[in-house]
Amino acid sequence: MASKSTTNLSSLHSVGVLCNLDDLRKHENLCDVSLCVGGCQLSAHKVVLSACSPYFKAMFTQDMAEKNQSYVTFHCVNVDAMEMIIDFAYTGKLQVTASNVQSLVPAACLFQMHLIIDECCQFLESQLHVNNCIGIWRFAYDYGLIELTQVLFKFINQNFEEISKLDEIHDLPVKYLIKILSSDDLNVSSEESVFQILESWIMWDVEARKINLPRLLKCVRLSLLSATYLRRSSLLNSLISYNSLAWDIMHSSVQGELTLDQQHVRPRCAPKLLCAVGGKNGLFATLSSLEIYLPAKNEWKSMAALPQPRYECSAVVADRKLYVLGGIVCEPYKQHSNTVVVWDPDKNNWIKSVGMLKSRSSFASVVLKGEIYVLGGYDGESYLKHVEKFSPRKSTWERVTDMKQTRICFSAAALHDCIYAIGGYGPAHQDSVEMYNTTTMHWQMLKPMLNKRINFGVTVYQDSIYVMGGHSGTAHLRSMEKYDTEKEEWELCNSMRRPRTGIGTAVIDGKFYVVGGHSGHEYLNDVECYDPGDKTWERCSGMNSARCAFGLVAL
Asked: Which of 240, 263, 286 lies at the terminal end of a domain, its last residue?
């Protein structure tokens, strides 16, 4: 009987072929090219080099002069790096070290040998430290190592406060400094830290660097700095007299007259934690507690309590501080309030801010271009369509164009210089939506939601507005719907795990967090998280206290 046996020997065969080819090279048998580098001649086979490198393949197979040459000279390649590349071509073996990586990367990039490039990148990433990250980043950036550059830049952003204390930051060419200081993700305690780096970098070589002052000032979020702080900058005040453009930028900032493209009002660094504050967890139980959620640890931590218990309040983040506005304050007696208190996360304390023009509860608030807008609500006597805004920089409130409809128990969102007032009650359950254009200062009605909702959550993500939960007037809701601002259409999304009203919602790292509320049967402390990528909900660690009608923000 005939039999057949098939065995895959490709791996053994490949190793054997490489060993034999390397042996031929070492004995200079059948070699057809010598690579001349740094006074040395390194023998090789064109076919082997071409099989490993697109650069050599093009050189030896296309109509290039080197195709028929036996000697090819390289002036810009390190001889040790060339030897390593040839060895790798014949053996597949490579040892990257701190002493050879800087010469190996340029050669590997030149010859387009991506396996070597990847190995070098992994080595450099493994060596990453605060003390060397700037130098490695510049090196990776110059050689177009995109993925490594992104990793390093993220590391620099996250550790900037520590890195900024090193002398190496002062040796940066201006193009690198501009890239760092322009980053939205720069992890700094305040914009003053960024401004101080600008000053110290200029001071390192004043005469040579003062010409860069206007470009660098545009990287700083001047609107986040007080006029008093800017006036105290003796260095810049002395330099701007020599530069009219720098003087214009600084003068406009001090006078509060920056144009929109100069304002840079968005604070640095994406939110890292949730803050849940106030609310109620019983018919007569009003809360003053503040707790924060750390997604990385999946845990809640109690912080300094509000000066007074309050519910049906609103909370926003401005200038990296938590603002809690209005609501019903229960001490010394129950009243609709216009008071505003501010929590400083660095000091874990509360201070009183300037009160709103109008007392209100069950209202909505948003932050746009660094200013806090409060909309609608109930003042104890009537439903409101009144809108006002607060400038943290000027510490002043001013009246803004009223909404078209009175609204309480509704939600608001800010997107693309516009404010959206959504749903609520006034005096019936609403599905209506209106939009305020901050440029034209006019409101216009938009397409209504698919469901009427009060006391629901809202988030903004990738040019869309998501609403979830709440109460329709007949039932507690667990549904979620999305408004596409370009298509001007609402569509249903995957529903939450359970119905809830009086909730808090926020976005961290592209995930929606829905917190607390009331299920119709009980006050809730549980948390759900939605991933818009895979469109799934999952449970997270619950708050220390159940709460409803409270403030929730990402900070």
From this structure: 263
